Fold this sequence. Notes:
The structure holds two protein chains of two kinds.
Chain A: E1 11-20, E2 23-33, E3 38-42, H1 49-56, E4 66-74, E5 77-78, H2 85-90, E6 92-95, H3 106-116, H4 122-135, H5 139-142, H6 155-167, E7 173-177, H7 185-198, E8 203-207, H8 211-217, E9 220-225, E10 228-234, H9 235-238, H10 246-252
Parallel strand pairs in A: 3-8, 3-9, 6-7, 7-8
Antiparallel strand pairs in A: 1-2, 1-4, 4-5, 9-10
Helix pairs in contact in A: 3-4, 3-6, 4-6
Chain B: H1 11-18, H2 23-58, H3 69-74, E1 78-79, E2 87-88, H4 91-122, H5 125-140, H6 143-162, H7 170-194, H8 198-206, H9 211-222, H10 224-240, H11 243-248, H12 266-273, H13 282-314
Amino acid sequence: MVTTPSRTKQIEVVDLRLSYGLKEVIRGISFAVHPNEILGVIGPAQSGKTSLLRCINRTIDFTPDSHVSGTITIDGEDVYRTGNVYTLRRKIGMVAPLPVGLPLSIYDNVAFAPRCAGLSRRGELDSIVEQCLRQAALWDEVKDRLDSLGTKLSGGQQQRLTIARALSHQPEILCLDEFSIAIDPVTTMRIEDVLKELRRHMTIILVTNLTQQARRLADRTMFLWKGEIVELDRTEVIFSESPRDRRTREYVEGIFG
Amino acid sequence: MSPAPAPDDSPAVMAVRAARRPLWARLGEKSIEGMVYVSGISAIIFVLGIFVFVLKEALPVLGHEDFSLSRFLFSTEWYPTSEASKRYGVLAMIAGTFSVTLLAMVIAVPFGLGAAIYLSEFCGQKTRETLKIIIEFLAAVPSVVWGFIGLTVMSKLIVQFTGAPVGVNVLNGGIVLALMSVPIIVSIGEDALKAVPDSYREAAIALGVTRWQLIWRVLLPAAKNGLLAAVLLGVGRGVGETMAVLMATGHAVHVPQSVLDSVRTLTANIAAELGEASAGSEHYRVLFLTGVLLFTLTFAVNLAADAIVRGIRRK
């Protein structure tokens, strides 16, 4: 099969399979993500949502005993054949379920990736830090204490800090993995507004355990179950009275899962 | 349907509410509590006991008219058995202890931390297990065996390669001491690095940093307290080690001008001379005073370490 890079397919996944040892957790899934869309990924625990994200930015490489087959292409480049995995990862911003503040100051957390990429001029760093913190709707709360430890912030602030950090290397794709699991509803709504704004600049994959969150934000939604795609369609269809698969309806209505 | 909760007056509920543990269980708990308390404060008792004992043996010498504390600390002349005039200056030995320890740390810290980083971040599971067993074996080699290696193997090599007149010197002692400190630095340093949560690694990796940037900018700062503790335990070993340096450094009372000079350390001096000094004599008491000095030095190192670690934590 010849895959031609297309403007409408920023990420293309073909027959992706992932196993940890003998246990297959992703069982041959294929889908594409279009530029500037929010793709919602819903599904119960253990359905392979987090593993999918880790395959895309290849942090799966650090899990011993994991085996990946199939292809993932980003902007036409095969993720598993790329010569420079660091450049690849810089195209992707990743936000984990529980905020991981690196043991650095707020400023250094956000300036971390640009510094590692070789940027050192204070002025440039300052403006990147401010821009990212503003994008993550955190700037006004922390602008007077950029030098204090990131881990001293509240849970919701820390999560926005990790979003700011994920934006700091100017990614084209932002992956969020159940970002609202540890934060309150008000902060969640603020971040959702942030995401609606960010969609204008980048592609977003939103893994969420809150089906209503996908309904609010996603253009298209994918229902993943036991490592397989049950259904992937426009969000209105998935949440309508008549999605194609009966299980989809049962899941989004809370009957199972 | 879950079963209905038991009514308040059912026999099981009454029994649980009225239950009392037997006397032996309550007393046993109290006595274990007491024992744990005693073990806990015993460390303080022992440290104080040692300090008081050493001080008691050493203090009377301060009253002797021909003994001067400043000469003890700042003179390099050590003639404890001279008939004409006994002189007790330990500056040369302080210099000896410091030079050997410093050289040992210069060698051991990069090696030890490097090995710790390799073990924790780079090598595979099997290599790590094997290496850790070998490193623990190194830590278990008795110090007299190290001294023996320094005295025989190392000194010949040093004479051969540097052309030094004697092979037992600062270089020899430094290398032997480094070999003894490395296993401590490696195993404690590796524990410190392993204690850094994997989520830090994953978060940094996801930002597109290289392995080296991950280590340099995330892991080392995150583990710095543990790594500092590893290095200071190595220093502690260097200052306190006796037998190996006694055998490997040449035992000459002399302020070293180069790493190829023989020196004597504070510890080696006590070990070698205490047997000959008659109990209660001036010589005997000066050796105890040297013990007090050593005690103070290690105490100062520990205190400094503590202050540094606290300072880092507060920031």
